[in-house]
Structure formats: structure tokens, C-alpha cells
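for the writeup, i need someone to sanity check this before i put it in the appendix. the sequnce is what the collaborator sent (i think, or maybe the updated version? ugh). structure was predicted straight from it, no edits. if anything looks off just tell me and ill rerun, i have time this weekend
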Amino acid sequence: MIGRNLRMFALLAAVAVMLACVPTLASPAVPPTLDPLSLNTVIAQTAAVAATQTAVFAPPTLTFTPSPAPTKTPTEVLSPTPTFIFVLPTATVPTSTPTPGESGAKFDCRIVAQSPPNNTAFGVNVPFDTTWRISNIGTQNWNGNNTDYHFVSGDRIHLQGVYDLPRSVPVGGQVDIRVSMQAPGTAGTYTTTWRLRMGKNDFCSMTLTIVVQ
């Protein structure tokens, strides 16, 4: 009896060992549940990546917009505008350049400039100075120690009738003759004449005409 029990125990132990060696059957794997929203998100992201790669590798499409041709504005041809030059009278009257000794006379002169010019208008009793610039065109020098200029004829509009020559003037030289004058108190035209004088020689007439208004 005891021997039978031992054999049964040994058999059961052997069966237990064999069952322990057999691999445990794993439960069948449950397939994952697919979320439709996740699937849509993956599709959208894949499409976006594909579009980006297409935009990078595909050449850009250029749209040509034609520009209107510029309109030519007709150029108006203008006639040349005439230029007018107004010449105002000056206070001097220039003459040609004198040549020394050109007159051939011993005592002679040429008026190079005059201020004021003839026929200048003045108000009544207005004082003014008259200046003649003269050149020695004779063959004799003018000695300032014995040469003067004086009133000869015409209207007495001067304040002093005789002046000494400011300095000696060689042949071909020039000098300014200045006389202080005053317009008369009555309107009209007035003329005065002056000359140089060296010893007994009177020469170089200088005449001024003014208009008193």
C-alpha cells in the first residue's frame, strides 16, 4: 500500500515537472484601437510636408504682367525769344584812345570823359560838380606851376571862375579837371565853356550843357 502511494506521488511529480516545462500559452494580443482623428491628423501632416517639398523643389511660376508702353508727349518747338539789351546812359562820355602828339599842335587836348553828360536835368538851385578828363595830345608838356583852367563864355553857373591845374601833364598823359557848379533858380537850358591856359596860350575848350527843370 505504501509502495503504491509512492509510485502515484512520483507520477504526479513527474507530470508536474513536465507541465512546468511546457511554455505558458500567452493570451492573444489585442489589436490597438485606431483613432480616426489621429489618422486624419497624420494624413494632413503628410500632405503638408509633401506640399512643402513640392514648393521647394518645383520652380516658381512667374506671372507676366504687360506694362503699357510710355506715351510720347509731342515736344512743342518754341521760336527763339528775342533778347533786348537796354543801354543806360553813364556819367562819362568815352572817346577814342589818343595818340601822343597826334594833333601836331604845340598845345592841344582831347576830352576823354565828361561827368555829368550834356543835357543832364537838374532841379533849380541844385549844386553839383563837373569833371572833364582830358589827354595831352600836343607836342608840349603842361606845367602844373603855370597852367590853369578858367571860365571863357556862356552861362555863369560856376561857383569859382578859375582853378590851377592839379599837376603837370606830359605828352600823352591825362588829368581830371573839376569845377564846382550850381543849377540856376530858373528852369531852362544852360551852357558853359572852359579852357586851359598856359601863359598867353588858351587851348582845350570844354563845354557843358544842362537842363534845369
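The domain at 109-212 is CATH 2.60.40.10 (Immunoglobulin-like). The chain is about 20% helix and 30% strand.
thx in advance!!
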